[in-house]
Write a structure and sequence with these properties.
Residues 65-98 are annotated as: Disordered. Belongs to the E.coli NlpD/Haemophilus LppB family. InterPro entries: Cell_wall_metabolism_enzyme (IPR050570), Dup_hybrid_motif (IPR011055), LysM (IPR018392), LysM_dom_sf (IPR036779), M23ase_b-sheet_dom (IPR016047). Residues 17-61 form the LysM domain. By secondary structure, the chain is mainly β. The protein has two domains: 12-82, LysM domain (Membrane-bound Lytic Murein Transglycosylase D, Chain A, Roll), CATH 3.10.350; 102-224, Glucose Permease (Domain IIA), CATH 2.70.70. The chain has two helices and 14 strands, in the order βααβββββββββββββ. The strands form three sheets. Strands 5, 6, 7, 8, 9, 10, 11, 12, 13 and 14 form a ten-stranded antiparallel sheet that branches. The chain is globular.
Amino acid sequence: MAPVSDRTSPSYTNAPQYHLVQKGDTLYSIAWRYGVDYKELSARNGISKGYIIYPGQKIYLNTSNPKVTTKSPGVKKPSQATSRTTVAKTPMPTSAKPPVAQATYNHFTWQWPARGRIIRNYSPKSGLNKGIDIEGRLGEPVLSAAPGTVVYSGDGLRGYGKLLIIKHNDTFLSAYAHNHKLLVKEGESVKGNQKIAEIGSSGTDTTKLHFEIRREGKPVDPLQYLPKR
């Protein structure tokens, strides 16, 4: 089994050769864990557009290598009912109050995922913080920063606690970590500013929201996209 990484993990050059799929993994969560673009990961491993993966499957991580053309030996595909899929969309009617501020980018609107002050900034050089930490109280709402589809909902990535990942388009994903409660499931469509979770301290010793934006698999400073307060 490949070692589990968190947001303080070393650069991709120190990553293992492959990740062995575990129950609860999605292609998106694996790509997030190792800091690669999910589209490149799917192409590298010959995974079709549905992005369905199976426990026991080897996901090769070096996207510069030739495409995998053979299936991992010994992997028995489960029935469709138990397959992990991230493409179904179910409209969610519930939404939070209108945001305080908005910023438009790439045909959708970025909005603040929580109303607290920033207690830790993006730190790309040190690698210690690939997003921002927003102060909050237990149970306060976590809001989707833009419309999209939930592609991961769970606690399988060490260092993130209860985590949501939302796909906004083929370029951008966002993540919401350390939640107390997750209110949406994988495959559900969400609106911008919809309540998707409650702030908590899962996976950390501080009550806060850790928020990240990834552009083509790479972390970017959320403050470059969120509206000024």
